[in-house]
Design a protein that fits this description.
Among the domains are: 148 residues, 3-Layer(aba) Sandwich (Rossmann fold), CATH 3.40.50; 77 residues. Helices cover 34% and strands 21% of the residues. The longest helix is centred in the middle third of the chain and has 26 residues. Helix 1 links the parallel strand 1 and strand 2. With 378 residues, it is an alpha/beta fold.
Length: 378
């Protein structure tokens, strides 16, 4: 580690790595500081003892409609096409999800039900709420009471640790509803996983950046010893300002890996019918992921990752999901105002912006931020 750099980058997730690589392409010197023991942030993946991939911090399904993002990342990885399929397990049954015509046929027991039948049901069932004030009202206005209770309420309350009516309408509005037989969870044009896993892609980005890296290091330890022209901060927004106005609310989760030997895997090679199964019932976990469905790996063994959501406690866990709502929005706005007046610092990424961003949005924002930094307008 040198004693002077052009850029000190806090965090080795997607935002930090992409900016390190882009700035490095201009010959700028960068030091990337990461408090975890690996790069890649929450997208980090690895192999279990049977050689099968799993996502350490829950599933990260890459998809995008941005040609710029796809072209950029393709410099560092090949791709394996992926069809992300999700079920909901409740009432002893696996249901097609997101809600689609197939789900409606299961729900009604009518295998001949048409798309028009489903649309008519939704029109009858949806509550007349023109401007939903919260997530409960948003789902009742979309699907009505029966489907809301069956698929959404229990899962959402487990995931967020609060009543659905206490959540901003945007939380559940992100969930798609298909009136046809389209069972895809996402409709983005490009859906794939890095062919050799996320970690080799991150390693390639870091290598191309020629940046120095310090793992298991808090950037505050480095600040007094390293001069830099500009700071790029991707950590929690409130922590940068020592939680001056109080902590921003997050949800976090524990992810438990179960490695499954061949003797316990059914003849078809999988232990659950699709990649991801959601659990809206009394189970303490919200979902299980069997990544083997989309990696293309062939093995008699398999693995499952179970996700157990919980409250975020600084120093005890990692912040995962910003919780949108009037109070948190107002608090975040106060911190963003401070950030806007902080000289020589760029705040970028899900945590630093306190926004729920998909991976392609994070990469796109980093590429856009690079252009601004290059032009001298951070």
């Amino acid at each position: 580690m040198r004693d002077s750099y052009d850029y000190l980058i806090v965090g080795a997730g997607l935002s930090g790595l992409v900016l390190a690589e882009r700035l490095g392409s201009l010959g700028r010197s960068c030091l990337v500081v990461e408090r975890r023991n690996h790069i890649g942030g929450n997208c980090h993946d690895r192999k279990d003892r049977n050689g099968l991939f799993y996502h350490v911090y829950g599933p990260h399904y890459f998809r995008t409609n941005s040609e710029q993002v796809r072209t950029y990342l393709s410099r560092f990885t090949g791709w394996a096409d992926a069809k992300y399929r999700v079920n909901v397990f409740t009432r002893g049954t696996h249901w097609s999800f997101p809600i689609n015509l197939g789900t409606f046929r299961q729900f009604t027991g009518n295998a001949a039900a048409t798309e028009d039948d489903f649309k008519a049901y939704l029109a009858r069932s949806a509550l007349p709420i023109a401007s939903p004030a919260n997530s409960k009202e948003a789902m009742l206005a979309a699907v009505g009471v029966e489907l809301y209770e069956l698929f959404y309420r229990g899962y959402t309350e487990k995931q967020w640790g609060r009543p659905v009516e206490a959540l901003d309408a945007s939380v559940c509005r992100r969930l798609p509803i298909h009136t046809g037989l389209d069972e895809r969870y996402f409709r983005d044009e490009f859906q794939a996983l890095p062919k050799l896993g996320y970690q080799p892609m991150f390693d390639a980005i870091l290598e191309a950046s020629k940046a120095d890296l310090r793992l298991e290091t808090d950037y505050r330890e480095v600040l007094p010893r390293v001069r830099h022209r500009h700071l790029i901060y991707t950590g929690p927004l409130d922590e940068y300002f020592d939680c001056r106005f109080g902590p921003l609310p997050y949800r976090t989760a524990r992810y438990d890996l179960e490695e499954i030997d061949a003797s316990r895997v059914p003849a078809g090679g999988f232990v659950q019918p699709v990649l991801q199964v959601n659990y809206p019932g009394p189970e303490p976990y919200t979902r299980t992921v069997e990544l083997k469905h989309v990696t293309g790996q062939v093995s008699r063994c398999s693995n499952l990752v179970r996700e157990f959501p919980s409250e975020y406690r600084p120093g005890e866990s990692d912040p995962n999901y910003p919780i949108p709502g009037p109070e948190s929005d107002a608090l975040a706005a106060s911190y963003r105002e401070l950030a806007g007046r902080e000289p020589g610092v760029t705040f970028i990424g899900r945590l630093a912006q306190y926004r729920y961003l998909n991976m392609d949005q994070v990469v796109g924002a980093a590429l856009h931020t690079f252009e601004k930094l290059r032009d001298g307008t951070p």
